[in-house]
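CHAIN AND CONFORMATION:

***
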Amino acid sequence: MAIDDFAPNLSFFFSYGMDPEYAVLGRVARRIWAVAMQRRYGANERSQKLKFHSQTSGRSLHAQEIAFNDIRTTLQALISTYDNTNSLHTNAYDEAITTPTEDSVRRAMAIQMIINQEWGVAKNENPNQGSFLVEELTDLVEEAVLKEFEAISSRGGVLGAMETGYQRGKIQEESLTYEHRKHDGSYAIVGVNTFRNPHGDAVPRKLELIRSTDEEKRSQLKRLRDFQQKNSSSSGVMLERLQQAVIRDENVFAVLMDAVRVCSLGQITHALFEVGGQYRRNM
């Protein structure tokens, strides 16, 4: 396929956290994307324009001092807006412990509405452009990203690196480092490991939780059994076809598109476990 036939339809998904590097995430991505599309693939001007959706960081939500989560989400929404995101999702403050309630979702939406309607600076496009901090951060983060690209390329590209578990290993290491630093206090989180409430841990005694009722659970199980029974004659053949696609290193996604019409997620998962094994984290 010609690059310009599909590149304008591509879009990306970024999560904005509390670290300063997130403030330039979109800028760095757009710069790298434009240069690569032009110089490596000869794409036209439209294909060089990267689109991305942003979400505030779920990792930065905490059960302690739960009301503080809205403050973090507001800051993350601001930097993504200043970073010229194409669309934005703001997390609800109670997502640290439950599915969002109607009240918490409205508060999350209010963050976006207030930024858009009341925050005057957000009415101006690219307000941070030209500042020393943003320009310097952009260069530093771009350099770090390109260095990571080189590390992946030296391992045989994305697929080659996946074979050795490189990406998964990096994610595990970063996650472990974050958790260690959170617990030893070297990564300061207000209300969690620093500036704790002197009157005790401010975890609400009563908090509305969103849980499925027994009736909803039974209804879902019944629908699942009915679906499996309805497709019992064709699901076995389809699962075998899926397993063979994995074994022969074919396009598994193309087969999955057909498999989900007659097979449940559990059936597909177990079929893949049989040929690929089940992942166990190595420490």
Summary: The mean pLDDT is 93. The two ends are 42 Å apart (CA to CA). The CA atoms of residues 47 and 156 lie 26 Å apart.
